[in-house]
Amino acid sequence: MNNTLLKLIIIQIKDFIREPEILFWSILFPIGISGVLGLAFMQKEELVREVAFVSHNRGSVEAYENRLNSELFKFDKSSEEEALLKIKRGEIQLYIKEDPSGTISYHFDPVNAEAQLTYLMLEKELTKEKSEERPTVEITTTGNRYIDFLIPGLLALGIMNSCIWGIGWNLIDSRIKKLLRRMVATPMKKSTFLTAQMITRLMVSFCEGLILFVFAHLFFGVEIQGSIPGLILIFVSGTFAFAGIAILISSRAENAQVGNGLINAIVLPLTIVSGVFFSYHNFPDWIENLVRFLPLTILADNIRAIFNEGASITSVLLPSFFLLITGFVTFIAGLRIYKWY
């Protein structure tokens, strides 16, 4: 090997080792995140699937449970309205309806892979006892389909990514290029500079979200059934929360490796556990109780409530307040410890 090339490689390795932050984010952080998510997803016992049972006969649920004789399912007697609401929220994937003659039928979205799996598992357990044909009813009404669950989650994910990468990475890159030093040398207030970043990102996020919604509406028939002012409020609150988090993340990072690590430390876990692509109700109880209070979870759940449940502006006041407080606290903290030079 060329002697010059070998020396350059050694120099690069030494530079890498001398940066403890880089060692943490490139080696220790992946190990830590894999351990935490491994504990969350790996359960010794099989997942118990909740299924709603719609029937006017009070004894039907107990009779069905006894007939099925399986510990893999939990049945809750519900009205059809309650069952549909649970599907909208991702709490269940399928419900069973019994007609006056005693015939049962399965109601689920055939596009939802989790619902299909629940249906096949139920049929497998029942056919052990007796082979008979049970009808299925496809849920295709707007607000109850998997696509109606997915689009609000993608809107929330877009807000997070737009703020974390658009503000956080942009500010880190400006520090690396020493542009921040030039900015603070002007008479401009530092808070004004960071506020401009947040307002600009709000405008960009609004355009991105509008494009996604128009596409989903035209191609999949996704509709907003609730309050438009409520949607705007939760949208602005969510953008402010993640903009504040982005400013806090970018406040001290001095190189690209550390910046990437910090951003991924926020984005990756939230994307996985916050119910963007699948319901977080499938997690163990101790994980689910924590996930409910994550900013991305709050944002996605309330956008879904407005899209699919017809939620009013009053129903999103408290979560919007929580997101605004999150943004305010992280913004002030980031401003106080911000490294401009």
Main sheet: which strands, in order across? 2-1-3-4-5
Approximate helicity band:
55-70%
Number of contiguous helices: 13
Total domain units: 2
The biggest sheet, with number of strands, parallel, antiparallel or mixed sense and barrel status, is: 5 strands, mixed
| Proportion of residues in extended strands | 5-15%
Unreliably modeled segments: none
- In N-to-C order, the SSE pattern is HHEHEHEEHEHHHHHHHH
Mean pLDDT across every amino acid position: 81
Rg value: 25 Å
By helix and strand content, what is the structural category?
A: alpha/beta
How far is the first residue's CA from the last residue's CA? 40 Å
Overall shape: it is elongated
Q: Give the strand tally.
A: 5
SSE topology sketch:
Elements: H1 3-17, H2 20-41, E1 49-54, H3 60-68, E2 73-77, H4 80-88, E3 94-98, E4 104-108, H5 113-127, E5 136-138, H6 146-176, H7 179-184, H8 190-220, H9 228-249, H10 256-273, H11 285-291, H12 295-308, H13 317-337
